Amino acid sequence: MAAVLNLADDQATAALGARIATALQPGDVLLLEGDLGAGKTALARSIIRALLEDAELDVPSPTFALVQPYEGKGHVVLHADLYRLASERDIDELGLFDRAEAILLVEWPERVPELYRKATGTVTLALPPGRPGRTAYVAFTDNRNI
User: Fold this and answer.
1) Residue 46, domain CATH
2) Rounded mean pLDDT of the chain?
3) Does any domain span residue 145?
4) What is the tally of structural domains in the chain?
């Protein structure tokens, strides 16, 4: 069952990211869905900063690098953005599953449908028409709470 959360602003999105971070475990694959500009990178940034306990950590969008690794505070995090992936087959070259202990955050997972079989959680972000903020739909396959 998905939790549905109305996020009024960027601070609410960051707070959600911190809550999600407390639920993540080594080996988790969290898929981040939503239209362009829905807040996927902002959410990933807040999750990574919370996991690494560094509120000022520079977390750029991995749009051009495709994968950005982070390590610290006992966590390995891989932040992937598959928007520019040329082919679904190219996923193997990214090394996303080379480290079993890594927490994997994936933006634009629909570019590689096989990721849905490996996902332990999905966050879908939407910009509601006619009002500020965004709506988040959060679901984990094992029904863990955030």
Assistant:
1) 3.40.50.300
2) 93
3) no
4) 1
Number of helices followed by number of strands (H, E) in the chain: 3, 7
Of 140, 134, 131, 105, whose CA–CA distance to 32 is shortest?
A: 105
What is the Cα–Cα distance from 88 to 72, expressed in whole angstroms?
Answer: 30
For the residues of 95-132, what is the DSSP string, one character each?
TTTS-TT-EEEEESGGGSTTHHHH-SEEEEEE--TTSS
In angstroms, the Cα distances linking 81 to 32, 132, 144 are 9, 25, 25
Write down the residue that tokens 């239209």 correspond to: 35
pLDDT in tens, 23-73: 999 999 999 999 998 999 999 999 999 999 999 999 988 888 899 999 999
Q: What is the pLDDT of residues 97-112, one digit of tens each?
A: 899 999 999 999 999 9
The answer to whether residue 19 sits within a structural domain is: yes
Q: Could you list the residue range(s) of the whole structural domain that residue 109 is in?
A: 3-140
Q: Are 78 and 104 in contact (CB under 8 A)?
A: yes
